[in-house]
Amino acid sequence: MDIGTDFSINMLWAALLGYAFGSIPFGLILAKLAGKGDIRQQGSGNIGATNVLRTGSKGLAAATLLLDLAKGLVPVLLAYRYFPQEVGFAALFAVIGHCFPVWLGFKGGKGVATNAGVCFGLAWQLGAIYAVVWIAVLAITRISSLAGMAAVVAATVAAVIFGWTALSGFLAIIAVLVIWLHRENIKRLAAGTEPKVGSKG
Question: Helix, strand, or coil here: 43?
């Protein structure tokens, strides 16, 4: 009974930890501080680095990317320290926090960069695979959405192949969520109208 209670409490704390970090809208905050206005009213309306790049500031986009990655990495590392058995919940809710931040009416980003940080926190090998696939697909196609979706799938498959079964379920849920959030991108990919990195659309 005590073990079950401890697990439930630690699971809750791990989830709250992940959500608290994940829900920080760095893209929105940085864009406003830099005088770029409300990023949600520009480009795709997304708060992630790809849309921040459409403001014309590569530095601002890079900072958003790194901070969005960090808010996935940090809660996972903290969970490993304090709630090692429930680290998967910290990982999952970091991405959920980014995608559905309470501060923005539950309208956030699509979770790709935050999940990169999650993967590096869970196991550096997962992070490396995620990054290689993400960068490779982006370099070949210049389509951010396609690169992100390929990376989340690759990380899930890698977790299964390398036997990280305790993590694969959480990564699979994240992959489904990220792909679902890209459903409009998928329609544009099918129609051949998905914008490439560097475009203003």
Answer: coil
As a whole number of angstroms, the distance between CA 55 and CA 34 comes to: 10
Q: CA-CA distance, 28 to 48, in Å (whole number)?
A: 8
The answer to whether 73 touches 114, Cβ cutoff 8 Å, is: no
Task: For tokens 């969005």, name the residue.
Answer: 68
| Mean confidence (pLDDT) of the chain | 90
Is pLDDT of 1 > 80? no
Full-model pTM: 0.89
Q: Write out pLDDT tens, residues 98-128.
A: 999 999 999 989 999 999 999 999 999 999 9
Euclidean distance between CA atoms 4 and 184, whole angstroms: 41
Q: What is the dihedral of CA 69, 113, 201, 54, to 10 degrees?
A: 10
User: Taking a C-beta distance cutoff of 8 angstroms, is the pair 30, 52 a contact?
Assistant: yes
Binned at pLDDT 50, 70 and 90, residue 4 comes out as low
| Under 8 Å between Cβ of 52 and 29 | no
Name every residue whose Cβ is closer than 8 Å to that of residue 15 and which is 6 or more positions away in sequence.
86, 89, 90, 92, 93
Cα–Cα distance for residue pair 195/197, rounded to 1 Å: 7
Residue type, 4: G
d(CA 156, CA 37): 36
CA dihedral 159, 160, 162, 168 (to 10 degrees): 40
Of 147, 119, 117, which Cα lies nearest the Cα of 135? 147
